[in-house]
Amino acid sequence: MKTEISIERLLLWRLRRDEAEAPPAPPAWRLLELARPWRETWPERFQLLVERLGKIQVAYGHAMAEPRRAQSGYPVPVLIVHTKNELETFARVLYLDTCDGRLHLRFLLNSVPEQAEPAFEVTFISVDDSKPLFSAHAALSLESEYRLDSELPVEVAKNWKELKVTERMPFRLILRPLRSEG
Model pTM greater than 0.85? Predict the structure, then answer.
């Protein structure tokens, strides 16, 4: 004998079962902690990384020796931060547009680990005073090439309005993989 069960009853049964099996919601303090930028969670480590990033020397003469690379602008110092180690490298800004308070950016990393990260949290650090400007997410689009589309803070948008891809960039970058790392 077939008993017809309404879709509504079936969905309610499934909802109750899923609720019973679900882990408890994290407390509010944990949610707030997860929402904080990593630089606020580990301020001492962040400061050490900013100091290390500031010490990376940019060899502009090297760009002249490789004409193909010279067309893609000046090198931007980059520090890729993993849980246990960091990698110093450079990025070439391939495309930069600041329109309507948004930053559209494509950059190519000169050297990356064997396995390219699918996404990074990118922290922009001011060249002038080594202060963090803002953070955004960059996604891998091609081999070692990342794209980023982010809203800019008002002051940064105003200062970068006339910035061209062929100019020296007013920032350095700290990249953190978007996987769950400590």
Answer: no
